[in-house]
Write a structure and sequence with these properties.
alpha/beta, TIM Barrel, six-stranded mixed sheet, two-stranded antiparallel ribbon, 7 helices, about 20% strand, globular
């Protein structure tokens, strides 16, 4: 079954969160839109509330229930983004589609990307690249920047990135545990896995290795 066949019954899109004034997801001041739905279950994921394509309920430490996500139309998403276009324009920013996996519903992402393109809003996407290229190539072609979150070291994946994306660069994102509270709130602590955060020296040595291979390491932190 193709991912585009898995979708809500109407034309709404499940948006987990819209984070404005973001400066870590691309150039300038941005709005990062977290779309719900992901085919992967990475053990280090900090957004487990986006795994399902529907809103997810959790319980705050004080006992109050909170729902992550809401169904919105493309027009409703654009109406909220329109309030921030002056910040995009003045800072060289824009919108970053994130998740979850933004390409989980290609039809939804395509509609959002076209709507932003029509309004002249620069766009980036954060993706696992876990999607059908032929089905989604037209969407990628409309984007200004792609953050390809490579989940494993594989020569074939590296060649694919070099062949399909212009001027690839690498950003190393050290592991953090910012998502731990979400797992508790959602009753998903059994999925939580602790990893060791690499030292600054280790990250610097890896960036030097990347540089020696002719690839530019970058950082948006």
């Amino acid at each position: 079954m193709r991912l585009s066949e898995v979708r809500p019954e109407d034309d709404t899109i499940c948006v987990s969160q819209m984070q404005h004034f973001s400066v870590n997801d691309g150039e300038g001041i941005r709005s990062t839109v977290f779309l719900s739905g992901c085919p992967l279950r990475c053990r280090w994921c900090c957004n487990p509330e986006t795994w399902t394509p529907t809103p997810k309920s959790g319980r705050l430490p004080g006992g109050k229930e909170e729902t992550f996500g809401r169904f919105l139309t493309v027009d409703e998403v654009m109406k909220e983004l329109a309030r921030h276009t002056i910040f995009y324009r003045e800072s060289g920013g824009g919108v970053t589609w994130s998740g979850g996996e933004p390409f989980f519903f290609p039809g939804n992402l395509r509609a959002l990307v076209r709507a932003c393109e029509d309004r002249g809003i620069p766009q980036a996407v954060e993706t696992t690249c876990h999607f059908d290229w032929d089905e989604c190539a037209d969407i990628v072609g409309r984007l200004d920047f792609v953050f390809a979150d490579i989940k494993h070291m594989d020569g074939g994946v590296a060649r694919f990135v070099r062949e399909h994306f212009r001027r690839p660069k690498i950003e190393l994102l050290p592991y953090h545990d910012f998502g731990r509270m979400k797992y508790r709130m959602l009753g998903m602590e059994s999925f939580w896995t602790d990893f060791e955060t690499p030292s600054k020296e280790r990250v610097a040595s890896l960036e030097a290795l990347i540089r020696s291979e002719g690839v530019e390491p970058v950082g948006y932190r």
